[in-house]
UniProtKB/TrEMBL annotation:
Keywords: Glycosyltransferase, Golgi apparatus, Membrane, Signal, Signal-anchor, Transferase, Transmembrane, Transmembrane helix. Residues 39-53 have a biased composition (Pro residues). Pfam families: Galactosyl_T (PF01762). It is a single-pass type II membrane protein. This is Hexosyltransferase. It comes from Ceratotherium simum simum (Southern white rhinoceros). Residues 1-18 form the signal peptide. Residues 33-60 are annotated as: Disordered.
């Protein structure tokens, strides 16, 4: 050690330089995809820690610090939140949970039919896979040699063949590090035509359909999230990121990949990224969409990412499953995901490039899309056209 001071100076200089590079790099990754559109989202709260935790008593985390609430969901959560970790809502007969809800909610009979149906079966969360006869069209597990960087998990419905095909031919097409899967309920006719044989053919042809044996209706969409998480845990535990999207979304996949690759590791580890709603409240207009009766739920929604499309870190899959065992069933899948993240102590990150209620007059404009990551809704034809235009070398913006 001939010059300890020089060494000290040198290391201090290097640290400063590193810091500068890091700050510039994160600032750029935050700003470059910003879209100065009319529907900007307010930034979510800053997370205190990127690491998920699940305390024995969830009440404070879920904002329940007062006396026993009277709305049914809040009451259930108050009890469930205080259980020792590991106990789950599904212990015993899941139908009993629904029967109890029907008996204990005073105005249950006046609830909309789909909400009543939801509550009666809400605690039933394990369903077998729906497999076409002969068992062909199995979705392959990820292998050590082939762990996707980004899994595109697209919620579809059996009859939406054109929407799925458009995704395959555009933003969900084969690319390094990308894997595409569609999540569906049963195609067997219950309320509509029996699509079993058509879906079986599609499944055999593309091997990208994860089907389960439950009725594919809006209030059953949380089942797709939970069953996907369980599938990931078993068949694809190494995936870095999972995009959860609707089949009418349009994803600018290369831009999304760039964004994810540029994230600081500490953000990436607890990622929950999308168009974030921080002040949403239940709608109380009976007969309207997303109506939630006051006797079922009181208070505001947690900050959550719009279900039209959001990205989570793959490593959170087992955590979210554990959280879901301790968060009472709620009919809207994206709000429910927000509740589970909140239970884990993680908050969503807003990105202005996610526009899940994109104005229809913009769909034709590839230039508007160049700086965005995900928009919806778009029909299959519009998606195909937009994808072509995006890749057109003549495109002038
Ligand atoms: C859980 O936490 C809430 C709020 O901090 C508290 O009121 C309640 O008594 C706790 N429950 C148990 C079983 O410890
Ligand atoms: C969800 O699927 C299950 C199983 O098919 C069914 O019993 C339940 O009624 C469905 N939920 C709704 C809201 O229709």
């Amino acid at each position: 050690m001939r010059c300890p001071k020089c060494l000290l100076c040198l290391s201090a200089l290097l640290t400063l330089l590193g810091l500068k590079v890091y700050i510039e790099w994160t600032a750029e990754s935050r700003l470059s995809k910003a879209y100065p559109g009319p529907r900007g989202t307010p930034p979510g709260p800053t997370p205190s820690s990127p690491e998920p935790t699940l305390p024995a008593n969830l009440s404070a985390r879920l904002g329940q610090t007062g006396p026993l609430p009277s709305a049914y969901w809040n009451m259930q959560q108050w009890r469930l939140g205080a259980l020792p970790s590991g106990d789950s809502a599904e212990a015993g007969d899941c139908r009993a949970w629904g029967a109890a809800a029907a008996a204990e909610i005073p105005d249950f009979a006046s609830y909309p039919e789909d909400l009543r149906r939801f509550l009666l079966s809400a605690a039933c969360r394990s369903f077998p896979r729906w497999l076409p006869e002969g068992g062909s069209g199995q979705v392959a597990s990820c292998t050590d040699m082939d762990v996707p960087y980004l899994l595109l998990a697209v919620k579809s419905e059996p009859g939406r063949f054109a929407e799925r095909q458009a995704v395959r031919e555009t933003w969900g097409g084969p690319a390094p590090g990308i894997r595409l899967l569609f999540l569906l309920g049963s195609p067997a006719g219950d309320r509509g035509p029996d699509l079993g044989s058509l879906v079986a053919w599609e499944s055999h042809r593309y091997s990208d359909l994860l089907l389960w044996d439950f009725l594919d209706v809006p209030f059953n969409q949380t089942l797709k999230d939970l069953l996907l998480l369980a599938w990931l845990d078993r068949h694809c535990p190494g995936v870095s990121f999972v995009l959860q999207a609707q089949d009418d979304a349009f994803v600018h996949t290369p831009a999304l990949l760039d964004h994810l690759r540029a994230l600081p590791p500490s953000w990436a580890r607890g990622l929950y990224l999308g168009e974030v709603f921080t002040q949403a409240k239940p709608l109380r207009k009976p007969g309207g969409p997303f109506y939630v009766p006051g006797s079922f739920f009181e208070g505001g929604y947690p900050a959550y990412a719009s279900g039209g499309g959001y990205v989570i870190a793959g490593r959170l899959a087992p955590w979210l499953l554990q959280a879901a065992a301790r968060v009472a069933p709620f009919p809207f899948d994206d709000v429910y995901t927000g509740l589970c993240f909140r239970a884990l102590g993680l908050v969503p990150r807003a990105h202005k490039g996610f526009l899940t209620a994109w104005p229809a007059d913009r769909t034709a404009d590839p230039c508007a899309l160049r700086d965005l990551l995900l928009v919806r809704p778009l029909g299959p034809q519009d998606s195909i056209q937009l994808w072509k235009q995006l890749w057109d070398p003549q495109l002038q913006c």
